Each structure stands twice: as structure tokens, then as C-alpha cells.
Amino acid sequence: MTSLHAVEPFPALGSTAALVLTDPGAEAEALEVLLDEIDQLDLACSRFRDDSELYRLNASSGRRPVQVSRLLLEAVQQALRAARLTDGRVDPTVGRALEVAGYDRDFAALAPDGPPVEFAVRPVPGWRCVAVDTAQSTIALPVGVHLDLGATAKALGADRAARRIAERTGVGVLVGLGGDIAVAGPAPDAGWPVRITEDHAAPLDGPGPVVAIRDGGLATSSTSVRRWRRGGRSVHHLIDPATSLPAEERWRLVSVAAASCLDANIASCAAIVMGEGAPGWLVRLGLPARLVPPGGAPVTVAGWPSEVPTCC
Amino acid sequence: MRRERVRDDGLLRLSTSTRLLAAGAFVSAGVFSVGVAKAFPGHSAAASPATSATPTTAAPATAAGDGGSATYQAPQTLTPPTAPPQPVYNPPVVSSGGS
Question: Measured between alpha carbons, how far apart are the two ends of chain A, in Å?
């Protein structure tokens, strides 16, 4: 049986990074790659750092196309792909809507409560207005359009880091960024055991089922964490692009397994926004998933193991 | 003799008029066709993205948001894992949850 070596989780990208290896001897090399990937991702995709590329891009909306790095180009292209594959349920042009809702700085610096905000119920500008020129490596945003890559960038980073570490060290690796899990290289005999929890930072011995994955990725989206209050109203960070409001909470927790962490995270975010139709959509795509309604029992689809109640 | 000449002249004028009319109609039809083609450009069924009430995995041949990218390659669907997650009783090494 393969023994697994887990590096102590550490803060990264406004959440937590996790690294697990099938060979402890690869730790130093793997950690170097992971830290490099995190640094690059933060510098390219942070909405809050005033020295990030995304910050500069958002500040340039309505002006000339902005030259961007290959990483931001890839991150934006993947965000647009997410929008296309979900009929706009996961749309990067929710940046302004998040700002209006009060999420305009790093979450740790966000006041947990504040005065009322004026929500305007209208669709976000929409992903089709983002002009990407791959050959010139430029992106142009119409005036007033701000991108948020929160639904895709961490998962993309987890995939990239896991792949790079496996290629460089040859060992099996699991990378977790804010609860978005990517695995690469030779899997342990029994797979990678992952606990499904409300909050990815919860203790490993907390509540929630444990499942094993062997390849690709697993992601969980939740409306229970990353919440704040404005004018006495509780809001969360998963914006419905059709209304610019926090998505209705038909599901409070959705976990999805896919061939990549990115695809898993796109599907889990889309399922929260989609609401009632999500289980059927996930079945049609063949994506194993677990959906938990507020105050209800989990629903599992497309091969996700069903659960037997274990306690009262 | 004179009546025959008048008749021949008349037939010649009629023939010339008919030819001119036919040529004019041909040119007019061509011009009209080009105008219509430009005003109502066609599209193939394969390249048209369908709008549906539920999300689809089909990608349009050219997506506005991609800026006409010709080199970018990505899976055109959300891809399932090779095997679904399995229940396991080993202690977990990591948590997947909201962040």
C-alpha cells in the first residue's frame, strides 16, 4: 500500500494550499514548483493586487487592448470556455457585480457587515464582449466591464501545478488550492482520499464523506463560506450572471469530479447557479457529483457514491 | 418591294430590341442576386450555435469572446474522469470544500 506524504497546508491565494505526494523525497522540488505556480497565478489573476495583470486589465476597460502574459491569456481563455460550456452560467464578466455586492477587496480585508448596497437586477455584460487576440496576446474589455477569474483561476492553477510537479518529479501528486483538488502522476493504490466538507479549511477529522479519486480533479462550490452582510442582508460570492445578484440557494454545496480540476470547478459553480436543473445537466455530461440542498439530504448523480446515513 | 423592306426593317428592330432586353434582364438578375446575397448572408447548420434553455456542450465555430482565436485548443466539453470517485474508509489527506 502506498504511503502518502502530506505537506503542512499553508495560506495562498486568499485561501489554503495543500500538497500531498506519494514520495516524501520529492517534497522540496514539488514545493518549489507549487510556490512558483501560486506566485505566477497571483500576479496574473488577482482582482485585488494593484500590481497584478488582471487589475491593470480591469482598470483599462474601454481603452486600447492590453498586452498580457501567456498565463493571464490562458486564464481568460479558460474563463471564456467555462462561460461557453455553461451557457453563461459561469461568466468572468461578473467583476462589477461582485464589487457592487461589496466584494471589492481581498476577502480577509472585507468588512463582515456594512451599509446596504444598491443591487441592480440586470444581466452582467456577458463573456462575448471580451475580445481576446491570441496572436497578439492582447485582451480588450468594453468600458465598465471588469473580469473576475475566481471561478476558474485556482482550479487552473491546481491543474497546472500538479501536472508540472508530476512531470518534474515522476511521483504521484495531489495539489489543493482553496479546496479545488488536482491529481497527476501515478495514483496511490487506493486512490487519493478526499473529505467533502462545507469549508475546505475544516479539520480533516470533521464531518463529511470521504471519497477516493484516481485522476483528474475534484472541486466543491459552496454558498456557505465566503459570505458577508450588507444592510442586514446576507450575500455570497457566487453571482448569477443573469441577474448580477448572488445565486439563489437551491444547493448550498456541490462537489463534482472531472478529468481536470478546472472542469470539475466549472461544473460545480454552474450547478449552484443553475439550481433545479443541475442534477440532470450533470448526468447528461456524465460528471459524478454530490449536491446538498439547504437543510436537506445530499443528492448524488452519475456514479458518485451514494451515502448511507451514519448518525442521527 | 418597298413593303418587304419595311417589314424586314421592322423585324430587324424587333430582333435587336429582344436581344437588348434579354441582355439587360441577365445583367439585372446578376446584380440583384449579389445584392440579396450581401444583404442576407447564409450560414451552415454545423457552424451555427444553437440557443437552448438548458446548457449545451456544443461550441460555436467562432465565438465572439474568443476573438477569433485560431490556435487555442481546449476540450469542447466538460470531460468526466476515467472513473467516478469511490467510497473509501482510509483517513483523508485533504478536504474539498467551499473557499
Answer: 34
| Residues of chain A with C-beta less than 8 angstroms from the C-beta of B79 | 216, 258-260, 263
Looking at residue B99, the DSSP 8-state letter turns out to be -
Q: Is B93 exposed, middle or buried (0-12, 13-18, 19+ CB in 10 A)?
A: buried
Q: How many CA atoms are closer than 13 Å to the CA of A292, on its beta-carbon side?
A: 19
CA distance A89 to A196: 23
How far, in Å, CA of A7 to CA of A11, rounded? 12
Cell numbers for B92: 483523508
pTM of full prediction above 0.95: no
Q: How far is B49 from chain A (nearest CA, A)?
A: 10
Which letter, b or e, does each residue of A196-214 get, where b requires 16 or more Cβ atoms within 10 Å of its Cβ?
Answer: bbbbbbbebeeebbbbbbb
What nine digits make up the cell of A244?
448580477
Round to whole Å and give the CA distance between B43 and B96: 45
Whether A210 contacts chain B with CB within 8 A:
yes
- Measured CA to CA, the distance from residue B98 to residue A231 in angstroms comes to 24
Residue A77 with chain B: CB contacts under 8 Å: 66, 69, 72, 74
User: Does position A160 have pLDDT exceeding 80, yes or no?
Assistant: yes
Task: Look at A193 and B90 and tell me if their CB atoms are within 8 Å.
Answer: yes
A204/B70 CB distance under 8 A: no
Q: How many CB pairs under 8 A join A and B?
A: 221
Question: Pairing state of beta strands A131-133 and A66-67?
Answer: unpaired
- Furthest-apart CA pair in chain B: how many Å? 120
Q: SS3 of A81, please?
A: helix
Return d(Cα B17, Cα B4) in angstroms, integer.
20
- State the ipTM, two decimals: 0.87
Is residue A121 within 8 A of residue A302, CB to CB? The reply is no
Judged on CB neighbours under 10 Å (0-12, 13-18, 19+), A29 is: middle
What would the pLDDT profile of B43-99 be if each residue is shown by its tens digit? 333 333 333 334 443 333 334 454 444 444 667 899 999 999 999 988 898 889 877
**Residues B94, A194: C-beta atoms closer than 8 Å:** yes
Let me know if A268 is exposed, middle or buried by CB neighbors in 10 A (0-12, 13-18, 19+).
buried
Say whether A80 sits in a helix, a strand or coil.
Answer: helix
Between CA A99 and CA A103 the distance in angstroms is: 5
Q: At which residue does the C-alpha cell 480585508 appear?
A: A109
